[in-house]
Specification:
heterodimer, A: mainly alpha, extended, B: elongated
């Protein structure tokens, strides 16, 4: 479990760098470090299906980000040097909420069953009936395309939603004239 | 959008077929090994993004490829829903695995799962490439 925590700390550091650095190319590279650490963590907890999807999607998004950034300025001008009063207030309020959330989380986690030993009634059914009922050797494919195919049908509309989001973000109406 | 240098174009020509083949492998073996329709579809979308970035394209080409990719995305979605409705028509249950199971660990096994993987692969590949096109060529799309 030690390497898992090391990767978590690495992800935290890379995420903070990605939000705070001024050079946008460096920010995208730190974002890629976070994504590939997620992929390595998926391999460590033995989920190769998710690791493949994570690596492939991460490569594609990084390529698109770099292709966009190489055509624009590299410097993020929205990060300012000065800190205004309202930012200090926001940080204090956020810190207070984080402490409250941490106390509540510790109390809740003490009451949960230990990691990896939940009751697992449904999962046991999937594991024991997956191969005989569907004939597929990959249990993940059995679950997402046979037992829970209706969920996958809803999931397939996610890409359509994101295309609509991109077009809505890029449309001409409502854009400020220069 | 302009293309890249001769080195990039040559390497792209060599590599592009192998990447496409790997995406097809991931989709077709989705019921046997890790992977599946989503991962393979993203790899196939990556092939088209690579070709687009290396060779560049014109206004007419961008319009044409956006139409083609939207047609393919609709075809994938209709295939997926069609398999589900076929189960409803033949057996009375939505998404029932109506094809015989076959022997496990063979390529032709697991009933409708490989067909669903192919449908999702077409849909995801075309959908991701049309997101890329919408980001790269939104000026031309919006003028229509």
């Amino acid at each position: 479990m030690l390497e898992l925590y090391l990767f978590l700390i690495f992800m935290l550091v890379a995420g903070i760098i990605a939000t705070e650095i001024k050079d946008l190319l460096a920010a995208v590279i730190s974002l890629g470090a976070v994504g590939f650490s997620v992929a390595i963590i998926f391999i460590l907890v033995q989920a190769p299906d998710l690791a493949i999807v994570q690596i492939v999607v991460e490569v594609l998004t990084i390529v698109i980000f770099v292709a966009v950034i190489l055509r624009t300025t590299h410097i993020d001008e929205t990060i300012k040097e000065k800190i205004s009063g309202i930012q200090v207030l926001a940080v204090v309020l956020y810190g207070a909420f984080a402490v409250l959330f941490f106390i509540a989380m510790v109390r809740t986690l003490n009451n949960l069953p230990p990691f990896g030993h939940p009751i697992m009634k449904v999962a046991n059914q999937y594991i024991s009936l997956g191969l005989p009922r569907t004939g597929g050797a990959n249990l993940v494919a059995d679950v997402i395309l046979d037992f829970r195919a209706l969920d996958t049908l809803g999931e397939a509309t996610v890409l359509f939603t994101s295309v609509i989001g991109v077009v809505a973000l890029m449309r001409k109406i409502g854009r400020r004239q220069k | 959008m302009k293309g890249m240098s001769l080195i990039v174009k040559t390497i792209t020509n060599i590599v592009i077929g192998f990447i496409f083949l790997y995406g097809l492998y991931i989709i077709l073996h989705g019921h046997l090994t890790p992977g599946g329709g989503f991962a393979g579809g993203v790899i196939i979308a990556g092939v088209f993004v690579l070709k687009y970035l290396a060779y560049g394209s014109s206004k007419a080409g961008e319009k044409k490829s956006s139409i083609i990719s939207s047609v393919f995305e609709s075809v994938g979605a209709l295939l997926f829903v069609g398999i589900a409705l076929l189960g409803l028509l033949l057996t009375g249950v939505f998404f029932l695995n109506f094809i015989p199971r076959g022997t496990p660990l063979h390529l032709l096994s697991a009933g409708i799962i490989p067909l669903c993987n192919i449908a999702i692969g077409i849909k995801v590949g075309a959908g991701l490439f049309s997101i890329f096109l919408a980001l790269a060529a939104f000026k031309y799309i919006m003028e229509d």
